């Protein structure tokens, strides 16, 4: 049986969408576009994002790679975003993540 997450990732142009200020509490990832806009996910110390059901944040959207990105909390409490060689890249505040 073939893996449903093995499909090719669709390619889409980058976009800029204003993001409202985050509320107090644990940081969250908020989906802005696609099949589930407005969905939010609380971040843990190490969070993977992608179409794979093995990712902590599982987003079934054709523009998302199976293993798209990883967000990790640093010792100083700040978060670091890493692109896991996704097809469309990872963008934060309108800037492409190069790492």
Task: Give your account of this protein's structure.
This protein has 99 residues and is mainly β. It has a domain at 40-99: Sandwich (Tumour Suppressor Smad4). Helix content is 0%, strand content 27%. It is built from no helices and 8 strands. The chain has strands spanning 28-30, 40-42, 46-50, 57-58, 69-73, 79-83, 91-92, 95-96. The strands form 3 sheets. It has a 4-stranded mixed sheet, with no helix packed on it. The protein is globular and about 35 Å long.
Task: Quickly list its features.
99 residues; four-stranded mixed sheet; globular; two-stranded antiparallel sheet; mainly beta; 0% helix; Tumour Suppressor Smad4
Second rung of CATH, namely the architecture of one domain: Sandwich
How much is the average pLDDT?
A: 84
CATH fold annotation of one domain = Tumour Suppressor Smad4
Structural class: mainly beta
SSE topology:
Elements: E1 28-30, E2 40-42, E3 46-50, E4 57-58, E5 69-73, E6 79-83, E7 91-92, E8 95-96
Parallel strand pairs: 3-4
Antiparallel strand pairs: 1-2, 3-5, 5-6, 7-8
Short structural summary:
The protein is an all-beta fold. The protein has strands at 28-30, 40-42, 46-50, 57-58, 69-73, 79-83, 91-92, 95-96.
